[in-house]
Design a protein that fits this description.
This protein has 228 residues and is an alpha/beta fold. The chain has a single domain, classed as von Willebrand factor, type A domain (Rossmann fold), CATH 3.40.50. It has seven helices and six strands. The protein has helices spanning 3-9, 32-50, 68-76, 122-134, 154-159, 164-177, 206-221, and strands at 17-24, 54-62, 89-93, 140-147, 182-189, 199-203. Strands 3-2-1-4-5-6 form a six-stranded mixed beta sheet, with helices on both faces. It is globular. The chain starts with a helix and ends in a 7-residue tail after the last helix. The model has no long low-confidence stretch (mean pLDDT 91).
């Protein structure tokens, strides 16, 4: 039975599910990993659109290397200790509900542009994606984070500690998991994800990325005890 047929046959997401694909746009994604992420987004986004699903296709990175305006502002305040995030966020919306139906694939090559791929601050990106989803008042929210590693921003980690962003991501995932409407998963490219997502699938390249993404989506929609 195909995914589409199984989805139409029934699921436990309620009558207003919302789906989010949230793509890591870090510098380490440059090349084959970004191509794999764009391919996954294109195929899954097209399938969800044809099922008339509410969805967001989103990307996240930073606005600069080395901190940008956030670091300049911090330095202007006398560089207080333990400042928290020290870089500007750049969040990208590939589709929305205001008229991009069928048009969003033309924007996906943005994922391949080296000048867009900088740092990755995953925790805040997940909170942003959650806030966008909850505006739709969904009966459930299914979110796939597509990433190739732990959150990293050199400017932030230099002035806090090396575990700062990872701890924040862990806390955010735990907070989101506590909401019974939320089903949060991670498609991990070439790294071992240790954050407690509800489901994790690992992919080692373009060849298997889309199949593993469908496996992940199935695990989130129809939860079962399976090995990643």
């Amino acid at each position: 039975m195909s995914f589409q047929t199984r989805f139409r046959a029934g699921h436990s997401l309620g009558d207003k599910p919302h789906f989010t694909l949230l793509i890591d746009h870090s510098g380490s994604m440059k090349g084959a990993r970004s191509l794999a992420a764009a391919t996954v987004t294109d195929i899954l986004g097209d399938m969800l659109e044809h099922q008339h699903c509410s969805m967001d296709l989103l990307g996240f990175t930073t606005g600069a290397w080395k901190g940008g305006k956030s670091r300049v502002f911090w330095l202007g305040r006398g560089a207080p200790e333990n400042p928290g995030r020290l870089n500007d966020l750049l969040h990208i919306v590939y589709n929305d509900e205001t008229g991009s139906v069928g048009r969003w694939p033309v924007y996906l090559p943005l994922m391949l542009m080296p000048n867009v791929l900088r740092e990755n601050i995953d925790g805040e990106a997940l909170l942003w994606a959650r806030d966008r989803a909850m505006r739709r008042d969904p009966t459930s929210w299914v979110c796939l984070l597509i990433s190739d590693g732990a959150p990293v921003d050199d400017s932030t980690l230099q002035e806090n500690d090396l575990g700062y962003l990872q701890r924040h991501l862990q806390l955010v995932v735990e907070q989101l998991n506590a909401d019974p409407r939320t089903r949060l998963g991670c498609l991990a490219f070439d790294y071992h994800a240790v954050v407690p997502f509800r489901a994790i699938k690992h992919a080692d390249g373009l060849e298997h990325a889309t199949l593993r993404a469908f496996d992940l989506l199935e695990d989130l929609i129809w939860p079962q005890a399976t090995e990643s």
